[in-house]
Backbone:
């Protein structure tokens, strides 16, 4: 699965390419699973230090993270490309037009 931000339009990767984004639509109901997904999207840069993040990465089989510099709403992204770019847990595999794809290392 690919960790994404449901507020930036990246959920279309499923329809266009058959890839499986973790966050497909904006969740208005706060279930435990929804809160776990939002926690993961917000704290993915802490994967090396946060046991909960590591457990959620394993639970959903996250191998890639897609980050967009902009989105569809007037809220900042939960994680920025700069948060992952200098992090040894991630390697940037694609960058174009404000979209960045990082692969989890190891």
Residues:
């Amino acid at each position: 699965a690919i960790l994404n931000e449901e507020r930036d339009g990246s959920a279309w990767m499923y329809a266009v390419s058959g890839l499986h984004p973790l966050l497909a639509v904006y969740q208005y109901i706060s279930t435990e699973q929804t809160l776990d997904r939002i926690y993961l999207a917000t704290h993915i840069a802490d994967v090396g230090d946060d046991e909960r993040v590591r457990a959620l990465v394993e639970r959903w089989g996250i191998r890639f993270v897609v980050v967009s510099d902009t989105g569809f709403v007037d809220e900042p992204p939960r994680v920025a490309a700069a948060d992952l770019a200098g992090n040894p847990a991630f390697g940037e595999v694609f960058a174009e037009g404000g979209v960045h794809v990082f692969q989890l290392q190891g």
